[in-house]
Every structure is written in C-alpha cells, then in structure tokens.
Amino acid sequence: MFKLYRSCKFVSYYCNKSFLKQYVNQSIKLCSTPVVANVRLYNLCSRNPRSCIRKLVPVRSFLALSILGWLGFIDEDEEKESELIMTLKRAVLSRKREQYDKAEQLLHIALRLAQQQQNEQGITYCYDLMANVAFDRYELAKAEKLFVSVLQRLLSGGISQDDLKVIHISLKLARICHLRAEDEKADIGYNWCLEQIGKKKNIEYDAKMLYSVIQDWYAQFLLDRGEVEKSLKHLKEAYIACSDTKGKESEQSMLLLNDLGITNWRAGDIESAQGCLLEAIGIGNKLEDKSHLGVVHANLGLIYLQKGIIKQAEKYCKEAWHLGKRHENDESVMQANYCFEQIKINKS
Questions:
Q1: Given this model, what pLDDT does residue 82 score?
Q2: Which of 223, 179, 237, 242 is closest to 10 using CA atoms?
Q3: Cβ atoms of residues 300 and 284 within 8 Å
Q4: For residues 284 and 256, what is the distance between their CA atoms, to the nearest angstrom?
Q5: Whole-prediction pTM value?
Q6: pLDDT-derived band of residue 67, with 50, 70 and 90 as boundaries?
Q7: Which of 19, 203, 279, 348 has CA 20 to 30 A from 114's CA?
Q8: What sign has the CA pseudo-torsion 276, 300, 291, 330?
Q9: CB burial class (10 A; 0-12, 13-18, 19+) of residue 37?
Q10: In terms of C-beta distances under 8 Å and separation of at least 24 residues, what long-range contacts does 72-81 make, across chains too?
Q11: Which residues contact 280 (CB under 8 A, 6 or more apart)?
C-alpha cells in the first residue's frame, strides 16, 4: 500500500456549557495528559504505517470575522481604538505569515492595551488569538487552557451556545482531543458542533463555511479511526458546502478534492480517487497560489503506479517535485520523493 498525502488547510476559534463543564471539571486531568507521540507536524496513520500520510497543519479560518466586528465596534470607532486595533491587526498578519514569536509579542502588547482601556471584548479577543497561536504551534495544553478561558468569558457575557464563536471554539477543543487520541471526547465534541451548526448552515454564510470545516475535521477523525465509508460521507458534505460558499475553483475546494481522492482510494474506489485528483489538479493549475499543488500531483502519480501505468506515474511525480522546489513546499518534495521510491521498487 502506498502513502497518499493529505494537505489540509482550514479554521480557527469558537463550545457549549455542558461540553465546557467537562473541560472545567477535568482541566487538571486533561492538561496533564501527554500528547500522543506520533501526532506531530506529520502524522503517520499508525494503524497501517504504509497506508497513508497526512499533515495536520495549522488551520486557517474560513470565517471572515473582522477585528472591529468581533470587538463589537463599527468602522467609525476605529480611530478611537486605533492603537489596540492596529496592534491586533499586526498580530493577525504575523500569525498568517507563521511568525508566531512576533505574533505572541504583539498579542501581549495588545492585551495590556485592552486591560488599560478596560475593554473586555478586546481582552477576550486577545486570549482567543493567543489560543490560536498556541494551537498553530501544537502547544495543545496551553491552547486548551486559553480556549476554555475564552469560552468562560463569552458565556458569562451572555453569548448563546449556538453563537458561531462558541461553536468554533468547541471545534478547536474537539480537535485537541482528536490530536490527543481521546476519541470519545473528540466524537462528542464534533457531533455537538454539527448539531449546533445544523440550525444555521442554510441561513448564514459564515455558518455554512464553518459547517464545511466541521464536516472536514470530523471526516479526518473518522478516517483516522478507520471508518472510511463514514468519513467519505462527511467529506462529501464538506466539499459541497465549500463549493457553495468559496466556489468550485477555490484552493479550499482543491484541497478537499485531494482529500476525497485519498478517502476514495482508502475505500478501494481507485477510479473515483483518480477522478477527484485530476479535478483537483485542474483547479490548482488556475490558482495563483500553487504551493500545495505538488502534493496532489504526487498523489495522482501513486494512483497511476497502483494501476500499473508507470509513465504517467513518473510524469506526475516529476511535476510534483518541480512544483515543490519552485514553491519551496517541503511536503510536495517529500511526497514526490516517496513516489519515486515506490516507482523504483516497482521496477526492481
């Protein structure tokens, strides 16, 4: 069996009171739970070490929540809060660029400003961003503590359990349980998020985007547990919702098609896997950012190799390597090299 590579991008931030109670009541126990050793930047699917490889990458938010909107300001308010807001914007930009030390320094400055202004929403937003920076760095215990603090502040401030911020943080807590291999807690969390978002997904644009993310993350969780058919069902839902909101020719749709290709392959449907990957490449060729396109080429190369079409396998693996080098994308180069190794083994 080959290793197909799952390149994931997606979400950040938003829980219910009963789920929160589990975290508050068990916080000491949970925060002392060791992170599973093989869950790192690259997570090998350990149930069958040669069956797949997937990157658990820092997730980017689909939700277009502006700083002003999050803090409850309107555009005219930006001037009087300019120092706080500009510091937060710089922190958000640093996080986007994966400059995490700089982001954290800026957030501490922003937190002091918010505290001096007695701006409770600003303080909450700083904690939320700090939690996401910790999550991006896989500092799971730190991220969990901060997310719980944000939840406590939101719920005590009167925000309802079905607010997108609350659902989004619940999703992050479920993901932390997933990464710790705490399957029962993760399953409860993911299903609670799906239940809550189901009430809003056809009404609000941001809710439908978050619905896509929840479905995608839950599909990843199910695939990690070996529930391939169930995973495929949820991944298809994620793709449909993503196509409706971001468009069929978006980077997010390309990445989900890559994941659908992998999951179809895991389900034994190699023709559907090939179709999904070819469609993903067609979309990727039109994108300005082609940094993840090499991964898809390498995955398709492995599909062709499994079908015994060696020349096509070599073609796509070579293109994957060149794309990876051109765009300085290590995961593309790594998967291309793996593809070359498998071709060599197949020829020997």
A1: 76
A2: 242
A3: no
A4: 12
A5: 0.78
A6: very low
A7: 19
A8: positive
A9: exposed
A10: 72/121, 81/117, 81/119, 81/122
A11: 254, 255, 257, 258, 261, 296
User: Could you read off the pLDDT of 178-216 as tens digits, one per residue?
Assistant: 999 999 999 999 999 999 998 888 888 889 999 999 999
Average model confidence (pLDDT) across the chain: 80
Which has the closest alpha carbon to 156: 120, 181, 128? 120
Q: What HEC string does 89-150 produce?
A: HHHHHHHHCCCHHHHHHHHHHHHHHHHHCCCHHHHHHHHHHHHHHHHHCCCHHHHHHHHHHH
Distance between CA 216 and CA 304 in Å, rounded? 26
Please say whether the beta carbons of 264 and 273 come within 8 A. yes
List, in sequence order, every residue forming a beta bridge with 54; answer none if it has no partner: 6, 43
Q: Which DSSP letter does residue 291 get? A: T
Three-state SS for 228-272 is HHHHHHHHHHHHHHHHHHHCCCCHHHHHHHHHHHHHHHHCCCHHH
Helices (H), 157-227: 164-179, 183-197, 205-224
Rg of the chain in Å (alpha carbons)? 21
Q: Give residue 245's Cα distance to chain centre.
A: 17
DSSP letter assigned to residue 41:
S
Cα(192)–Cα(188) distance, integer angstroms: 6
Structure tokens at 277: 């990957």
Look up residue 307 and give its two tokens.
């079908």
